[in-house]
From TrEMBL:
Pfam families (UniProt xref): NTPase_I-T
Sample GO molecular function, one term: hydrolase activity
Protein name: Inosine/xanthosine triphosphatase
Cofactor: Mn(2+); Mg(2+)
Biological source species: Rahnella laticis
First-tier enzyme category under EC: hydrolase
Length: 177
């Protein structure tokens, strides 16, 4: 059984990780442990590079806390231009898989708060009155009327990030012609 360490304690992220590992390896093939680690980036990362760095730093932190695990998974949400998105980083002892989630355009009223230094989750709480909305459906759930959620969008990206761990083409050495 794989020991998967999620570099988060956020239930929406942990559920997405569990769904992706279940899709790829089966329900009985893993157990997930969430750990609280620092991203090494601001609480509201801005731009793709800063957000990807946050996900990679989370994996590094998780590896330090649980070096005996089989997989370490970092998920970092960020803002780029007027969009929210997230980077997924998955590592085992031999390789890394990465993917970027779909993006959601944010309304101007939310972007104004973010541009003044606020986090998306805090702005969404102000807008909706829902406490800890980022630990639930998130902005994605709110703005898609629940058709998509933070979990469902992250799940898709995590399945993509898992491709190198089960598809033999990723393990094949490059052929010279």
């Amino acid at each position: 059984m794989y020991h998967v360490v999620a570099a988060t304690t956020n239930p929406a992220k942990i559920k997405a990780i569990a769904m992706a590992f279940e899709d790829i390896f089966g329900a009985e093939a893993f157990r997930i442990e969430g750990v609280d680690v620092d991203s090494g980036v601001p609480n509201q990362p801005i731009g793709s590079n800063e957000t990807r760095t946050g996900a990679r730093h989370r994996v590094i932190g998780a590896r330090q806390v649980r070096p005996e695990a089989d997989f370490w998974v970092g998920v970092e949400a960020g803002i780029e231009d007027n969009m929210t998105f997230a980077w997924m980083v998955i590592e085992n002892m031999h390789q890394r898989g990465e993917s970027r989630s779909a993006s959601l355009m944010l309304p101007e009223i939310i972007l104004q708060g973010i541009n003044q230094g606020s986090e998306l989750g805090d702005e969404m709480e102000k807008l909706t009155g829902i406490a800890e909305v980022k630990r639930k459906g998130g902005a994605i759930g709110i703005f898609t009327a629940g058709k998509l959620t933070r979990t469902s969008v992250y799940h898709q990206a995590l399945v993509l990030a898992l491709a190198p761990f089960h598809n033999p083409v990723y393990q094949a050495r490059a052929q010279t012609h």
